[in-house]
Design brief:
This protein has 338 residues and is of the alpha/beta class. The chain is 46% helix and 14% strand. The chain has a six-stranded mixed beta sheet, sandwiched between helices. Strands 3-4 form a two-stranded antiparallel ribbon. A two-stranded parallel ribbon has the order 7-8. A hairpin with a 2-residue loop joins β11 and β12. The protein is globular and about 70 Å long.
Length: 338
C-alpha cells in the first residue's frame, strides 16, 4: 500500500469542523509519520462541485462524485445544518451506499450517521450521533441501535462519531488503528489534544433529557421536584403532589417521562449541581446540600456515575470565568451580562 485514500463527501451547508477536524489529524499524522510509513491522501468529492460552501461560509474545492471511483481506504461523511436537504438527495445517498461497498471502512461525524443510516448501512449495527438528535435518529431508523453516550462507536467497518468535535477523537482512533498508539499520541500532543477524551457526550449535553410531561399531574410533579431539589424527595411524597397512589404514579410517570421517578430526581440533582459548579464558587459540600444529596460522598458517587468525572474535574473544565468573575451562562444566552 502506497497511501491510504480518504474520500470526504461534502455538500452545501455541511459543517466545516466535521471535515477539517479529522483531516487535520490525518495531515498532522502524515507530517510526523516519516518516510517509512503509509501516508493519508485526502480527496474531496461532491454533487455540488467544484466549489462547495459550508454552513460557516468556508468554501471547499471538491471534485464531482464520479472522481471518487475506485478503492477507498476511509470514506468520511460529515454532518451539517443542511442535513435534511442532503437526506432528501437520493442520488447522494445512493452514491454513499455504493462507495461504502468499496471502502475498507466508513466513518461519519455528527449527523453524518443519518446519511449512513439512510443508505441502509447501519441496519443491525450500533451507532452514535450528536446527543441532541439521538432520539430522532432512533425513531427514524429503528433497525439501528443508537447509543447517545459514547464519543464514537466502532461496529465492524463503520465508525460513527458524536457531536462535531468528536470527529477529531475518532480520527485519532483511526490513526492509532493504522499506525499504532505512539504516532497517535504524538499527533494528539502536537495538536494539543487528549488522545482519548475522558467520559462521553453526557459531559457536554443536558443530562436531564426528559422534557416536562404533557400529562398535567405528572408535569406538576416534575415542576415540584425541580422546586424542591434540596429535600429528600421520596416517591411517596412526589406521588402525593400529583394526587395519585404511589404505585399508579410510578407507572404513569415512567410511561410519560421514560424513566422512573427516582432516576428523574437523581438526574435533576445532577443538572442543578452542574449549574452551580459552572456558575458559582460554592464548595462541593455546599452544592451537595443544595442539590439534596444526603452526603458529599453520595454526591461524588452519583456525579461520577453519570458524567465520568469528579465535581472538581467538571468545574475545572466548564466553569465560566470573565474578568469580573463568574458569569452565568443563562444570562449570556439571553444577551445580557450577569
Amino acid at each position: 500500500m502506497l497511501e491510504r485514500r480518504v474520500v470526504v463527501v461534502v455538500y452545501e451547508g455541511a459543517m466545516a469542523l466535521d471535515i477539517t477536524g479529522p483531516i487535520e489529524v490525518f495531515d498532522t499524522a502524515n507530517r510526523l509519520l516519516g518516510a517509512s510509513g503509509v501516508p493519508y491522501r485526502t480527496d474531496f468529492v461532491s454533487a455540488d462541485a467544484p466549489l462547495v460552501r459550508m454552513s460557516s461560509g468556508v468554501v471547499v474545492e471538491a471534485s464531482p462524485l464520479e472522481a471518487g471511483q475506485g478503492p477507498i481506504d476511509t470514506l468520511l461523511v460529515p454532518g451539517g445544518w443542511s442535513l435534511s436537504d442532503a437526506l432528501a438527495d437520493q442520488a447522494l445517498v445512493s452514491w454513499i451506499g455504493r462507495a461504502a461497498a468499496r471502502s475498507r471502512r466508513v466513518a461519519s461525524v455528527c449527523g453524518g450517521s443519518f446519511l449512513l443510516a439512510e443508505a441502509g448501512l447501519l441496519d443491525g449495527r450500533r451507532a452514535t450521533t450528536h446527543w441532541a438528535y439521538s432520539e430522532t435518529m432512533a425513531g427514524r431508523y429503528p433497525d439501528v441501535t443508537v447509543d447517545a453516550e459514547p464519543i464514537f462507536v466502532w461496529d465492524g467497518p463503520f465508525v460513527t462519531s458524536a457531536g462535531v468535535s468528536t470527529g477529531i477523537d475518532m480520527a485519532l482512533a483511526l490513526v492509532e488503528a493504522d499506525h499504532g498508539s505512539a504516532l497517535a499520541l504524538e499527533t494528539a500532543r502536537f495538536l494539543v489534544l487528549f488522545l482519548k477524551r475522558h467520559g462521553g457526550q453526557s459531559q457536554y449535553s443536558a443530562v436531564l433529557d426528559a422534557q416536562l410531561a404533557d400529562h398535567p399531574p405528572i408535569r406538576a410533579a416534575q415542576e415540584w421536584i425541580l422546586d424542591n431539589l434540596d429535600g429528600p424527595l421520596s416517591v411517596a411524597e412526589i406521588a402525593r403532589q400529583a394526587n395519585m397512589s404511589q404505585r399508579n404514579f410510578a407507572r404513569v410517570f415512567r410511561r410519560e417521562v421514560g424513566t422512573t421517578p427516582g432516576q428523574y430526581v437523581e438526574r435533576s440533582r445532577i443538572v442543578r449541581a452542574r449549574e452551580l459548579l459552572e456558575t458559582t464558587a460554592l464548595t462541593t459540600s455546599q452544592i451537595a446540600g443544595r442539590c439534596g444529596f444526603a452526603t458529599t460522598e453520595t454526591f461524588f458517587r452519583s456525579f461520577g456515575r453519570t458524567l465520568g468525572l469528579t465535581p472538581g474535574e467538571y468545574r475545572h473544565r466548564f466553569q465560566v470565568i470573565s474578568p469580573s468573575g463568574l458569569v452565568d451562562r443563562r444570562h449570556e444566552r439571553e444577551g445580557s451580562p450577569a
